[in-house]
User: Fold this.
Amino acid sequence: MSIDLLFYTVFLGQVLLISYFFPKKTISRNQFILNTYPMDEYPKLYQNSIFVNPDQIVRKAMGVYRVVNGIIALFGLGLLILMATSGYKPNMIKANEDMVFVMFFFLLQIAPHMVLEVLTYKWYGNMRKIAVLPTRTADLTPRRLSDFIPLPFVALAVFLYGAWLVLFVAKVGFQPEHAASKYASVLVITLSHFFLAGMAAKYIRGKKHDPHQARTDQMRSIKVVVQINTFSSILMSLFMIVNDHTSDFNLTQYEPVFLSLFLTLIITVSVLVLHQTNKIEDVDFSVYKADAAGK
Amino acid sequence: MEIAINTEGQSPLFAQLVEQIKQRVLDKSLAPGAALPSIRQLANDLQLNNKTVAKAYQLLERDQIIQTKGYRGTFVHPDAIANCTIDLAAWVFAQLAETIETLRGAGTTDSEIRIAFADAMHNRQAKEN
Assistant:
């Protein structure tokens, strides 16, 4: 298979999965909640100090989310068609230093998802402000990392980060005069790993985002974050190891394929973990009923 | 095993926490040696200040109901069940009641006792600082 055909296939997968298939799943998940757990029966789910008709706002937001993702998907398909018809060869992406566009398109793709995450976070923030819970409960069992992910995966993430660092230093070497430029990526990648680890730790020990959430659901939510962050760390290290050594194996032209594949994989794994670990059917929605006591 | 704190209750939050943990030890849902959540986790779950939970843990540790093993965490003390039956607050109350009776017998007024008690506590705090 030529590099061009491989890139078209992988990039098409990135466009369809991130901007069509996964948003469709998110929308159907939210529509299922809106239709199965309406505001009059589950008022605590919609408690919000900002909006008059919160359920209508969610429906409208889902509509905008669908349209924006559709536009981005069409834009991605347009890019592919333009590339195929204009004679621009994907095997020249690296040579033309156009890698930034693959990354830029990915950032464009995840922008609506990030906005949705921020809005959800704010929604829970408003719920916490309103929720008056005179009786608060807690479990006297400590939450440990091993409750949320098998420790060998964490060990693998740490090992791969260490392996990447060792391989990077072995390849680049210590050159004080170029240290700033060469080691900037080490700083960025290290900070990214710390961010993922810190976020997981915050979820394990931190406050519940949703004040009404049942304990079992809280545990599942933590599991989702911990697993996504660990798998992202593993994938990031693997990608960096591959990316740093493409020239050693004469695979430099494949870098755009690897980047697109890595970005798609990270999102795919995240969505799979979310939908497998935190199935909507398993969520206890009874806590959102008007007469429900905190769990 | 779960505990519940009533923020509108009469007794202070740290005292509720102490009592609930003692209760769990006595009904054996918390066995000696069992691990307890960190101060931060419990404070976040109960939406309390870290200092409130820390104060409850300090009192429980003083009464040898829990023990802190450095960074490994906090555990139920091996003698926790026996130590739970000792009510230090009730003992303090009994000691004070006895002292007050002795002082009254010597002819001191309630105001003099209160002022002397406050002074004694104040002097002790000043010495400690």
In short: Chain A has one domain: 3-133+143-288. The first helix of chain A runs from residue 3 to 36. The mean pLDDT of chain A is 88.
